[in-house]
Amino acid sequence: MIKEVIVVEGKTDTQKLKKIFGEDIETVETNGLSLNQATLNLINQINQSRGIIIFTDPDGPGKKIREKIINSIDGEVLNAFIVKDDIQKLSKKIGIAEADDEAIKQALKQLVTINFKNKVSITWSEYLDNNFFIKTNRIKITNQMHWSDQLSSKTLFKWLNWANLNVDDIRKMIGE
């Protein structure tokens, strides 16, 4: 049973989660990129009392929404990720509502905790010196973390710090 409130982009995402987990699952909808300060305040309040799981679509707007929420939250934030390969093959949309049920269940089991937004666990020079920015390494890292392999090098660097991963952690991911 999921005790946290899941932050999703829209009503169809909520409907999908209720179909999979039952009517008791609770969500907050951001209304896509229309996410406003009142909703951010609500999400922050819920995070302080029950905890939240950010579960946005694996596309550009989903990434922007996730980052906006993370940057506005005080304290620990749980994140669930699906990738485009988890979307039903015939779907024209790329979102939680179109994702495979098993992929959604796995995403909500493999949560990534972000609680050190301003902490540096890896420096930019370490990132470059270890060639983590090279596309093949970025893909290995994003696959291990269940993040989109379309993340830019700068975004990956930021997210690695948010996840509090150090050089040794990342080397293990790429098989060194």
TrEMBL record:
Task: Provide the species name.
Answer: Williamsoniiplasma luminosum
Q: Which GO terms describe its biological process?
A: rRNA processing
Q: What is the enzyme's class at the highest EC level?
A: hydrolase
What name does this protein carry?
A: Ribonuclease M5
- What EC number(s) does its UniProt record assign? 3.1.26.8
Which reaction is recorded as catalysed by this protein?
Endonucleolytic cleavage of RNA, removing 21 and 42 nucleotides, respectively, from the 5'- and 3'-termini of a 5S-rRNA precursor
Q: What does this protein do?
A: Required for correct processing of both the 5' and 3' ends of 5S rRNA precursor. Cleaves both sides of a double-stranded region yielding mature 5S rRNA in one step.
Q: Check the record and name the InterPro entries matching this protein.
A: RNase_M5 (IPR004466), RNase_M5_C (IPR025156), TOPRIM_dom (IPR006171), TOPRIM_RNase_M5-like (IPR034141)
Q: Name one Pfam family in it.
A: DUF4093
A single Gene Ontology CC annotation of this entry is: cytoplasm
Per the database record, which ranges form the Toprim domain? 3-83
Keywords of the record: Cytoplasm, Endonuclease, Hydrolase, Magnesium, Metal-binding, Nuclease, Ribosome biogenesis, RNA-binding, rRNA processing, rRNA-binding
Q: Which domain of life is it from?
A: Bacteria
The family note in this entry says: Belongs to the ribonuclease M5 family.
List the CDD domains: TOPRIM_RNase_M5_like (cd01027)
